[in-house]
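DM from R.C. (forwarded with permission)

"hey, sorry to bug you on a friday — could you get me a structure for this? deadline for the figure draft is monday and I only need the backbone to look sensible"
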Amino acid sequence: MTMSNTPMAANPLTRAVLEIDEYASGLGWDQPARLFALVDTARLRTQEPALAAQLGLDEESTTTGLTPIEQDEVPTDKALDEFLGTIAWPDAVVGCALTVERLMLPPSAESQVPEGLSDARLAKWVASHPDRQEVRMTVAVLRDGSRDSAVRLREKDSPTEVLTGPELVPGLADALKATFED
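My reply, with the result:
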């Protein structure tokens, strides 16, 4: 996937997160979760030249950084954390990323959450809250523990309105990092 709006000054992991966010944005909203392997672009070109060419990475200018490769569909009949617990990556994969849409409440709504709700009832309560926001979160981690995230609000769906940072979605980053542990 070749992305046009990704700042070249960003580090390779941030660029990969923003590339995936832009790709997901092009698919529109109300999409299923998507999982990506992150591979070293230079290594991919050397070890898998046909795949690199298929991905448009056979040009010299694309020899550095990370290449996101979308994996098979994320199952919808299993909780995301359960699914992530079943993943084992081959050595050629240096990191992984996940993009997922969720409803989010502002911090001011935390005090309003009724106590003792089941997960299903809590989800229903959040979905009906007047201050809820639809967000798309893209989170990536590397084997060495590096992480980065991008969060896009549906109501501000613009590449210039994407928040980035390593600690925006720490729980999801931890779950992705666990996919690399033995």
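R.C.: lifesaver. The first strand starts at residue 34 and ends at 40.
me: no worries. The two ends are 30 Å apart (CA to CA).
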